[in-house]
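Cross-check.
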Amino acid sequence: MPAEKPLRFLLSLDGGGSHLLIQLSVLACLEQDTGISTYERFDMIAGSSSGGLIACLILGQKTSAEALVHKIVKERLLQAMMIEHGMSRFLSKLQLRPKFQSESKRKVLQAALQDCKLSSLEKPLFIPCFNLSRDFLEVFTNSARTDFWLHEIADACTAAPSFYAPVRLQDGDWRIDGGVGMNNPGLSAYLYAQRYWPNTGIRMLSIGSGWRRFTMDGLKACRYGGLQWSASGIASLILREKMISNANNTELVLGDQMLYINDYLQDYNMPDYMDSAKDPAIQQKALAIGGVWYRRNQAQIKQWLNNPG
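Predicted model, tokenized:
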């Protein structure tokens, strides 16, 4: 009888703006249930956009999701990262400048990750960013040619267009949020993990941060031009459908090697715009939603962890 393959556990985190506390709450519940921290539980962490930020913080600080939640809430990290420019409400409506100050976010990330570099990580990460200088979607891993500072990767992967300015990294190239091309990194991360650990079984837990709902008046939409479609959120609709399609296809391909957790935010009376969770009340709601998601999927999670497949 052939010996069973050793198992590696992969965590994949979708992008979702400031709703990252939902994902962290799911993980904190898992930690409380099993007594094992997220850093200890997973052998690799992949994340896009805000999910990439979580990956950087957990791997860079070797910390638990519960500790990270406490730090974010107590030290008001999201509020410190999301400081608006003066006259931002007027200018953002006209889309004449990014909504938030990039320098504020950069300082928070530098303080949180300090002198941590890719080469100092003891576990692999997988974070997509879009390279504006070279016009391609690239993925940061521990084997990147340049030994980037982790704080600059976290800065670049959260540089969502219209919210933050692009970020210039130490190699001179400009990057933005990789969610523009890979907001659900699960399948790509899984394939990378297979190459990283050949002849090894891979189990992936993939967690989203909530989808937006879109309802439109079809009769009115018949008269829409580019400006009206943009105002109605067509870009966000396209992104959501790409994410759902990608998640469904990943589940079909990987079967019980993957467990995906996500839901529509409006079903929980939660504001679904990307920057809503800098409000402390919304942060608490996000944490509560994460608890609901965990309890709803608790049996599946335990089976996923314990079933060798």
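The chain has 14 helices and eight strands. The mean pLDDT is 89. Passed to J.P. for a second look.
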